[in-house]
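Case study.
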Amino acid sequence: MPFVNWLKRRLVVLAGLLTLAYLLLPNVIVTVFSFNKPKGRFNYEWQQFSTDAWQDPCGVADMCGSLSISLQIAVWATVGATLLGTMISFALVRYRFRARGAVNSLIFLPMAMPEVVMAASLLTLFLNMGAQLGFWTILIAHIMFCLSFVVTAVKARVMSMDPRLEEAARDLYAGPVQTFVRVTLPIAAPGIAAGALLSFALSFDDFIITNFNAGSTVTFPMFVWGSAQRGTPVQINVIGTAMFLIAVLFVLTSMVVSNRRNKQKA
Amino acid sequence: MKTTPDNSGDVRLSGISKTYGSFTAVHPLDLTVPEGSFFALLGASGCGKTTTLRMIAGLEEPSSGTVRLGDQDVTHLPPYKRPVNTVFQSYALFPHLDIFENVAFGLRRRGIKSVKKQVEEMLELVQLGEQARKKPHQLSGGQQQRVAVARALINHPKVLLLDEPLGALDLKLRRQMQLELKRIQTEVGITFVHVTHDQEEAMTMADTVAVMNGGRVEQLGAPTDLYENPQTTFVANFLGTSNLIEAEVDTENGDDIVLKAGGGKLVLPEARCSAPTTAGGKVLVGIRPEKIALTHADEAGSIPEGRNRVTGKIADASFIGVSTQYVIDTPVCDEFAVYVQNVERDGRLVPGADVVLHWSPAHTFGLDAAQDIDAGTEEEAAA
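After joint prediction, the assembly is written out as follows.
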């Protein structure tokens, strides 16, 4: 049975490919339908190939405005959550203070709480405080739920860092600032970067919490949701595909750069 | 690269101690390490040797006392302002920097711009010129160890501190690195302070060894001096093996003390006794296993006069190549250790044989009987 033998030897690879296909199929659909020319208002059936949407990505009213708001919020939420989260992580790992254990577990509560419940409660809170719903309430909410993820990512990295590395830096004439910049930060960087990327993705994507606390502000996910009721413009797929391509490009570039760096050194 | 002897490389610790809450890691300690010497702090884990080293480095603030380098009081200087560098246990190489940058780190932090030549020379000294662009994790343990030494030495510190630098290496590599470190120290002439729990390592490398126990220095001296003339039971047991016998002072005979032990008499030169001796008082008599000769009981008559003798029965014999290690049951001590070189083996010396142990009184040493006779033995087994 040569075929069975052939299959046996490649089963792992085959299973891997199938899983990959399962993961990527939705992305493929998004991309393919960004080149569709739908007949009605809904982009659900393949009609014919067209690059219309790609040539005029902002052709849909308000869509690019909502995209810009989403990007702004994602950038600031990432900056805020990464800064605060990194500092919290260092505090939790390096210092012994009262209620450290409590803080350690409380920081994960936002991850455990059902998002829709938290969204509703946040709205209650903002309303009671008399806050004006909009950009700022969304940003505050996003920083809050991104924090847990940053802390998780950075803490693992800081915990596995040998404290002797910093002692070695101080022993080698690096003052406190130099030690942090030259040794602590570079070693923690992969964890911080992971936390930041996660924050950006989560914030850009978020619908539930945003929808409750946005007031009249419309983010990109809210725009997509809203338009899905009345018809889905192809431009949504264009934006989705573009984001996906940018992410892929990002990963590829960093791989090429690190490869080239390693080759230079070898 | 030799430093001129202006004593600026002396390390002078006066009355330094370290306490954590109610725990005293280091009791007030006075210690002078002369410039250019290879000094070892030897002891079991938790004896305060690493804490002492860290106080010299500035990584630990002493609870009392002062640290001086030459005439400069550095007690309150942070580590990055002290002309002292450390080779850390498990090396603490910076994982994100390559070997070159690891070695250049200290120079760069002091604002030196052209580091290339110095780093390359230093990497040559430790035979790692080829590895400059590799990351630490790409090197073997022995190579990483050499990088750690190079990274410290390139700064021309007044004193190089080594915290169990060879602890992570296997035995063969450790022997090799011991010689290597000794060579480097001779070459650069910098004061080395070396912390170790390995008595052989301390004795091979150091000019002077301080044996620490329970936060105190038990004895300080040249390796041979410590080995031949231990002053405490801890030193006698921790450095090599000692047979310790409880004995009673009988008479004094000129420069010698005659002792009674297990019905026999033993002679101990008074100069080699660190305990007060009054007639009827107790002392611990010590003798190293390799100083003892073993004769079968049938030939007891051939043993020359004037040697200390103890009779016994062989309980156990293990052949380990260069020597045979016997455990002998005697009236004075039921586990008398004797190491006999395998030169002319007497086939009758097997377990169960009656034997006479004899040795020259000059090799006998006397210790204060008020101490714990087993001090230093368990720790050694654990190390």
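Observations recorded in class. Confidence is low (pLDDT under 50) at residues 379-383 of chain B. DSSP finds nine helices and 20 strands in chain B. We will return to this complex in the next lecture.
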